[in-house]
Amino acid sequence: MSIIKFLKSKEFFKQILLAVVALFVFCFIMLKWLNMTTNHGDFETVPDLKGKSIDVAKIELEENNLVMQIQDSANYNPNYPKFSVIEHDPPSGEKVKENRKIYVTLNPSGYRKVLVPDLRGRTFRQAKPALQALGFKIGNISFVNDIGENEVIEINYKGKQVAPETMLGKTSKLDIVLGNGKSN
């Protein structure tokens, strides 16, 4: 039998029709199975966790059949208590599936530590932006007899001299001692 005769035969059309019916039945069964196994249309609402402690947030997520995934937090926010939730993804009010991971960012216990640079011998004009760029605040400025006018002689923190390469909390207030341009 030639190929052209076979393509025009009843047997070929029966086989095509059977294949199309089998494909529709298979798709129908798969869609019904997916509806049942994926809980199509069943959602959980993400609660508002901002400002809540880790334990309270975990309990609220478990009550809503959600899973907490803690992410590292580097930025301290003084508007929130220590170790509380400062943000989460997906945001509150969002509809998600059951057992979805909610990524939680926690507020650390304080500002991160920053290395105090060695600014001795530099002018105040150079030192001030360098310290502010690192997140430090400039406190009192005092002068001592030294030939270098407006030159940094020492940096103090809470009344004690800070050695270069010391780690201090970001936003620490540093007092600067400068030379007044007069010799001893």
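(ticket continues) Second input and output from the same batch:
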Amino acid sequence: MFEANAFELPDMAKKIGIDLRNRYILGYAPTNQERDGKFHSVEVRVIPPRGLPKLKPHWRTGYYAPLD
């Protein structure tokens, strides 16, 4: 939720649109299909293209495999 007066709405909507267009979601399917319940680490490396500002990636460091 954002608070704004009527004059700020167009600028705020534009900024929200830019932010949403610049988000990506990546999926991951492990090659190890073992159902061992153990923690499995995930490493993510981000190499930004030349000329882009610093990127701010966010990810989980791993996952627990299911037991069943």
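Agent notes: The chain has a mean pLDDT of 86. The first strand starts at residue 39 and ends at 41. Closing as not reproducible unless the customer responds.
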